[in-house]
Design a protein that fits this description.
The chain is α+β, with helices and mostly antiparallel strands. The protein has one domain. It contains two helices and three strands. The chain has a three-stranded antiparallel β-sheet. A hairpin with a 7-residue loop joins strand 1 and strand 2. The longest helix has 11 residues.
């Protein structure tokens, strides 16, 4: 990776628009091995029902890249500051 710096923000669409901004450095790991597949399954388990994980990951056979962001700075705010 030429420049590992990364920044992103997440906010709600409703007032008072609380948000978080993160700046840091990213690492990219791409592999077609069991360890990468298992990591993808672990990540997927956070978002979908456990019984759907195997089929979901199996549908993404070409997707074997994991991006990890290590924060250098985190800023958040909500109502009143």
């Amino acid at each position: 990776m030429r420049d590992p710096r990364v920044a992103f923000s997440v906010q709600t669409i409703e007032a008072p628009y609380p948000a978080v901004m993160i700046r840091g450095h990213a690492t990219i790991a791409t592999a077609d091995d069991n360890a990468t597949v298992e990591e993808a399954k672990a990540i997927t388990r956070r978002y979908i029902a456990p019984e759907d994980v195997e089929d979901y990951v199996a549908e993404w056979t070409d997707l074997r890249t994991i991006v990890t962001v290590v924060p250098d700075r985190i800023v958040s705010w909500s109502a009143g500051g």
